[in-house]
Amino acid sequence: MNITLRVWRQDTPDAPGRFVEYDAPDIESHASFLEMLDVVNERLTDKGEEPIAFDSDCREGICGMCGLMINGLAHGPQQGTATCQLHMRKFKDGDVITIEPWRAAGFPIIRDLVVDRSSFDRIIEAGGYITVPTGSAPDANLILVPKPAADAAMDAAACIGCGACVASCPNGAAQLFVAAKVANLNLLPQGQPERWTRVEAMVDEMEKYFGSCTNHGECEAACPKRISIDFIAMMNKDYIKAKFKNRRMAGQGS
Amino acid sequence: MQLDAKIPEGPIQDKWDSHKFNVKLVNPANKRKYEILVIGTGLAGASAAATLGELGYNVTVITYHDSPRRAHSIAAQGGINATKNYHGDGDSVYRLFYDTVKGGDYRSREANVYRLAEVSSDIIDQCTAQGIPFAREYGGLLDNRSFGGAQVSRTFYARGQTGQQLLLGAYQALARQIKLGKVKLHARTEMLDVVIHEGRAVGVITRDLVTGEIRAHSAHAVVLATGGYANAYYLSTMAMASNATAAWRAHRKGALFANASFTQIHPTCIPQSDDTQSKLTLMSESLRNDGRIWVPKNVGEERPPGQIPMEDRDYYLERKYPAFGNLVPRDVASRNAMTVVEEGRGVGPRKNGVYLDFAESIDRLGKAVIEERYGNLFEMYERITDENPYDVPMRIYPAPHYTMGGLWVDYNLMTTIPGLYSIGESNFSDHGANRLGASALMQGLADGYFVLPYTISDYLAPLLGTQPVPTDHQVFAEATQEVDDRVHRLLSVNGSRTVDWFHRKLGKILETHVGMSRNEQGLQKALREIPALREEYHKDVRVLGENESFNQSLEKAGRVEDFFELAELMALDALNRRESCGGHFREESQTPEGEALRNDDDYAYVAAWDFTGVGETPNLIKEPLEFEYVALAQRSYK
């Protein structure tokens, strides 16, 4: 198939960016979107032009490294799919495809389509863990986890940290990412001792980088793992509760 | 040079305990006087860094990813083995030890494997406490599944995303230490060399992938947790950036590299669909629990799979290996797939796959059960192939996936360079010539959580009171200059071919001659072709841009350059080992039924290679393998 690309090019974080148009003839429809970009890049290199910088790693939808705005949609037109698993058969011959980096103040551009998502790491560092130094754990089956709770925690834990939720949000908010990690840990018995401090610390850290959630729901639509915004409601509930929970009574259950 | 694996004395079940007692300790208040560098943040690196930080050491972590959470451990799907025996089906430390030594075709070190089996249960405890959402039974207890090469259910899993969940657990533990200031993180930073002073590893040289800054880091000890090298094949299940540079640079500085030819070709990957493909996608081996593998009986079969009647199908694994059936170890499954495809009985548009059929399981268990077990894998398959595996059998074919070979380490996981450790897939130690499914996660976390944090103090304790070599010392200046020169050399070639063009060519040579099946003539040919292509690379590669910017072509160029040298060693190691064992199948050495035939008299050793220069033949140093507990036997899965 033959397509035309309009790609955001920006040399450095502070340099002005611009759209550049590239013809991409003879693209295999079986190829993935990123393999199409590989081909374009090889052709650019052959012509002596610097290739388009973009992030990707596992290319099987799990590492969360890739992420492009494709025709204005985070990860492109296919629901529940990371950019690396999007295939060219989802496009038509003759299409003009606009490719941009994640657009969010919380994700500064490094080069072309590559952004800096280290703010996500800062949020996890703030409280996205259960404190359990190596070697101190009891036998695994001493901790009973009801199957529905384990399943719900897994639904939330499936987040790959790609940032599509932020990129698709009109406010540049990161609630879905943060809520997914809060829910993963707060839904489990193991997460209870730090439940209230965790949600406060993570939400407060999030506020330093990202906009506010106004329940647009664009994040759920863009999420390659289809993480539900129900988790945002859970996080908000825990956050409010955290404000008046007496921590000394945390041993009594909720 | 004589290799000393430092295996403790005594009966195998006491070795680790007595070793833990005998190693020198660093007292809690003194740990903060030590600096440790950990390179890589996969399961091994993240778990080691977090644990060392918890213990009180000052740790610096380096990853070329934008976040520690991206490491390729994340892509492991199926599960992690442990000897919990929660199902009462006869599992034990000894059985996991036995299965692993046998599965590795008797080319691993008994003492290391036994220790791995011993700590496997601790890993599950640790990960569960961290909040890993492992699959559960309705009563709230942990669920298990079975995996290739074992006859018990000992695999713990978190849907089809076990690696992701375990990595996030380790990453989160690491994040806690970063927040506490015990671990310093350098992301988007790639290690390009290790620095040696007076025979010890004293630091590394890195390049900042955003700014190009080349920097020296010094420490009391350096831990490489940099993964495997299957990307040398170009088409593999590895992530795009997975590379051998850190391990290879250590090898060039004197660390021996062992069993380079021991690569694992994973049986259940999606076959290649076109020529521009950049990687192959693995479908978890757990699919073999419920899927049946078959090909048409006849060459030239054109009917769609649903219309091929039972009598015209060949369930070749069930036919040849009735005891293990579709759950034979990976090397056996892969080789058999290759054989039927070479016979012309392959399926799919390119005739390059075999069927993995769920029709019968769906009939027996219902679609809902299959969906719960494998839903995300089925979805992934459909996204890639545009075929719905609930209706049409999956097509699968083997792909390079894991490398059992790696840096030689002793029982303490230290390489032949004092102060330089290698953990996880980057070392050679536990899997012999073939790794069993769900054992990579186990080894990565065993090394990182439960082995290295104990053994490293033995090296550190005598260094109490010493400062790391300052980074303005001449050894660092020289190493920095070397790295800088290398980067600029790559940029200045300005030839006519892209890095990927060369990488694809190299991959083709390896796949053809150092792949699932190897022979004398092919390996000789590879040993002529690889150096020739390497020379061409140095004359004709084109890397645009500059060092002082975010330059992905430059990153790749250095990695592929190291793959060239490593590929040559892979071929040489395969040539030297004139026997078949595990994933290393020499056509000259097979049983009448076509199974791998070992030659224990001549090859029951670890082949450790000592670098002597680019294009020079390295020296072979043998570590003899002794089997006191698992009697050497021809593997049989019939």
Looking at how many chains there are and whether they match, the oligomeric state comes to: heterodimer
At CATH level 2, the architecture of the largest domain in chain A is Orthogonal Bundle
CATH fold naming of the largest domain in chain A? Fumarate Reductase Iron-sulfur Protein, Chain B, domain 2
CATH fold node name of the domain at 479-624 in chain B:
Methane Monooxygenase Hydroxylase, Chain G, domain 1
DSSP strand content of chain B: 15-25%
State the name of the first-level CATH class of the largest domain in chain A: Mainly Alpha
Question: Largest chain interface and its two residue counts?
Answer: A-B, 79 and 83 residues
Radius of gyration of chain A: 21 Å
What would you give as the CATH superfamily of the domain at 479-624 in chain B?
Fumarate reductase/succinate dehydrogenase flavoprotein-like, C-terminal domain
Query: What is the overall pLDDT average of chain B?
Result: 96
Number of strands of chain B: 20
Briefly note the structural class of the backbone of chain B.
alpha+beta
Name of the CATH class of the domain at 479-624 in chain B: Mainly Alpha
Report on the architecture of this protein.
The complex is a heterodimer of chains A (about 250) and B (about 650). With about 250 residues, chain A is an alpha+beta fold. Chain A folds into 2 domains: about 5-110, Roll (Ubiquitin-like (UB roll)); about 120-250, Fumarate Reductase Iron-sulfur Protein, Chain B, domain 2. Chain A contains 8 helices and 7 strands. Chain A has helices at about 35-45, 120-125, 145-155, 165-170, 175-185, 195-205, 220, 230-245, and strands at about 5-10, 20-25, 70, 75, 95-100, 110, 115. In chain A, helix 3 (about 145-155) packs antiparallel against helix 5 (about 175-185), helix 5 packs antiparallel against helix 6 and helix 6 (about 195-205) packs across helix 8 (about 230-245). Chain A is elongated and about 65 Å long. The model of chain A has no long low-confidence stretch (mean pLDDT about 95). By secondary structure, chain B is α+β, with helices and mostly antiparallel strands. The radius of gyration of chain B is 24 Å and the shape is globular.
